[in-house]
Design goal:
The structure is a homodimer.
Chain A (H helix, E strand, L loop, with lengths): L6 E10 L4 E8 L5 E8 L3 E6 L6 E8 L4 E5 L2 E3 L6 H13 L1 E2 L2 E9 L8 E8 L2 E2 L12 E6 L1 H9 L6 H12 L4
Helix pairs in contact in A: 2-3
Chain lengths: 181, 181
């Protein structure tokens, strides 16, 4: 897993932010030459595929400043310091949807943008959803709205461009492949 | 598509690099409060699912500095100025794999990390591959090795963690769902 390894000669820290940091590494390439790599550091995130007892998928509509538009996505959120992915997934599911589950199943983990970022998203399946009695508040700068859809409706939203991100596109194919609804 | 819109009050340019840029925007939230958004700007990219006449999928093994490891991914690359996604896809397919096709089919486009980056990946399917007579050279700082796998072998590589990125994970489910091999 270290094939064609690029060794770091020097790291320049450019920015350290609330969510991400940016550094530029000088590296030695396999042919002995050097190059620069611009690298975004991210704490990692979770995403949850919530399926209601009625067989609907739960999405959140939210504004994505990076895209300057709103999207329909499966619930997701970044890891807070000291949190395991499981804890984050339980917390984000409850904060964003008002649902909880006793049955949180890890599916897979993947890198979202391996060319420039170290973000890894840990994917979970949440079935047998129960409504939380007293919904916890989420981040104070986060505004989301719940949307429950059948798988067919969700694929239509994807064709129409309202579902527009990799983890959610992956989720729809996963639910279909596993026959989960 | 502008629900919960966050209006920009001020943009601070932090870094302008070879591949990505970083800016921090002050925004007005729907409740009138303000917040900061750390935003990575990326030119966009393409990814290609190449299927050989023998029904194998073509991957490239490469070192990903952001992850400090090598991965098996479908061929991909960023858009150069003035290039259409189709051109980029043809170019990257040829540079990275030595294959070309007369049949490049757009599948979908998605945002990879909507929480902090504007990167969009345009996905293509490449069937009826032909070996290029004289392979064009790729980026001089890019070292890749070709790996051809059946879909079953690819799913095994994913379970073993050698396939580890969202666009490639999506590709495997897509090929399976559409019965392409």
């Amino acid at each position: 897993m270290k094939k064609f390894e690029e060794k770091t000669i020097h790291t320049e820290q450019i920015y350290k932010g609330k969510v991400i940091s940016l550094q530029v590494d000088d590296v030695t390439l396999p042919n002995g030459k050097t190059s620069k790599r611009e690298l975004v550091k991210h704490p990692g995130a979770v995403a949850i595929i919530p399926i209601t007892k009625e067989g609907k998928l739960v999405f959140v509509e939210q504004y994505r400043k990076a895209l300057e538009r709103s999207t329909l996505e499966i619930p997701a959120g970044k890891l807070e310091p000291g949190e395991s992915p499981e804890w984050t997934a339980e917390r984000e599911l409850e904060e964003e949807t008002g649902y909880k589950t006793a049955k949180l199943e890890p599916i897979t983990s993947f890198s979202t943008s391996p060319g420039f970022a170290d973000e890894i998203v840990h994917m979970f399946l949440a079935r047998d959803l129960e409504v939380v009695d007293e919904k916890a508040d989420g981040d104070e700068d986060e505004f989301v709205e719940l949307v429950e859809l059948t798988l067919d409706e969700a694929f239509r939203m994807e064709r129409e461009g309202r579902i527009f991100d990799a983890k959610t596109a992956y989720s729809l194919l996963y639910v279909q492949a596993k026959g989960l609804v």
